[in-house]
Design goal:
alpha+beta; flat; Chorismate lyase; DNA-binding transcription factor activity; DNA binding; 2 domains; two-stranded antiparallel ribbon; Arc Repressor Mutant, subunit A; Tscrpt_reg_HTH_GntR; 28% strand
């Protein structure tokens, strides 16, 4: 366990003249350090008195800030032991795998929930033209893990193929599992892109994020066992609760292969000549040994 250093003189990190209350400024300052791992899990925070000195604020301001961080689950407070940075509640997603978020979270023991926000038929546009149908089934879902919102998922499917899909069949269910069980479609390959983007007001509301918070966007197209495109999706992930993992492998060597061993071209006559020469050397060696013995 490490400790957060506390200077003896106050630091000018908060702005008393700002319209934002001091306790929110202090909470934001500590929160940023926790989320960017400047204060890793297990770090002991200074005492309330030390935080008062460091930031030049009252004890009530410190207590309000620490209380808010506790409510967020970012720190743990105990009587007589101060405050420590709580273990991160992170869920890891292997983005190079074809398995969906629901299956990956479920395999870790998390309780996965799925709320269907909407399921409609729309005309295809440039972003969904790869599906090859004039109309697409547009599906919007909110995914939770252990009751915490972690992702908003927009998916587009070829309407004729999945016309019988219902919102009820997707409640608290994996879309890929439904595709396989009800329609015989298996996702076997795909293309993926990852980027950080700003979240709009509705997205931030669903993920319970503050205004102007960035989100992690995973976009892609998935193909079935016959190589047909069957899914276009965009998934916005909560940046504090989801981590993208990528397995890497060493690339095949680009060095030229070693040359093959030379092929022997000795014919019968050449071998016979070498045998006669070796025989003659053995006779000379035997004569020398005999002469030395006399």
């Amino acid at each position: 366990m490490t400790d957060m250093e506390t200077p003896e003189a106050p630091e000018h990190l908060l702005d008393p003249g700002s319209s934002e209350p001091l306790h929110l400024q202090l909470r934001g300052h500590l929160r940023a350090q926790i989320l960017n791992h400047s204060l890793p899990p297990g770090t002991s925070l200074p005492s309330e008195a030390q935080l008062q000195v460091r930031y030049g604020v009252s004890r009530s301001v410190v207590r309000q800030a620490l209380g808010a961080l506790t409510d967020e689950g970012l720190i743990e407070r105990g009587r007589g032991r101060g405050s420590t940075v709580a273990p991160r509640r992170e869920h890891h997603r292997l983005v190079h795998r074809t398995s969906g978020l629901s299956a990956q979270l479920g395999s870790t023991g998390a309780t996965v929930g799925t709320e269907v926000l909407s399921l409609t038929v729309q005309d295809a546009d440039a972003s969904t033209a790869v599906l090859g149908t004039p109309q697409v089934l547009a599906l919007e879902r909110l995914r939770t893990a252990d009751g915490v919102p972690i992702a908003v998922i927009h998916t587009w499917l070829p309407a004729p193929t999945f016309a019988d899909m219902t919102a009820e069949s997707l409640h608290d269910a994996s879309l890929h599992a439904v595709l396989g069980e009800q329609f015989g479609v298996q996702i076997t390959s795909g293309k993926r892109q990852i980027r950080a983007v700003p979240g709009d007001q509705e997205l931030l509301r669903l993920l319970k994020l503050e205004a102007s918070s960035p989100v992690l966007l995973l976009e892609g197209t998935s193909f079935d066992q016959d190589g047909r495109p069957v899914e276009v999706f965009s998934t916005w992930h909560h940046p504090d609760h989801v981590v993208f993992d990528i397995d890497i492998q060493r690339e095949p060597s680009t060095l030229p292969a070693p040359p093959p061993p030379p092929i022997r071209t000795d014919g019968p006559e050449t071998i016979a000549d070498r045998a006669r020469s070796l025989g003659a050397e053995l006779i000379r060696f035997a004569d020398e040994v005999t002469d030395e013995g006399h």
